[in-house]
Amino acid sequence: MEPVVYIDGKFYPKSEAKISVFDHGLLYGDGVFEGIRVYDNCIFRLDEHLERLEDSAKAILLKLPWSREEIALATVESCRRNGIKNGYIRLLVTRGVGDLGLSPTNCFGPSLIIIAATIKLYPEETYTKGMKLITVPTPRTSHAALPPAVKSLNYLNNILAKIEGQLHGYNEVLMLNEAGFIAECSADNFFIVRKGKLYTPATYAGPLRGITRAVVIEIAEKLGVTVAETNLTRYDAWTADECFITGSGAEIVPVIEIDGRTIGDGKPGTLTAKILKVFRTKVSKEGRMIGAPAKSAAKTKAKKK
Ligand code: PMP
Question: What average pLDDT is seen over the chain?
Answer without folding.
Answer: 95
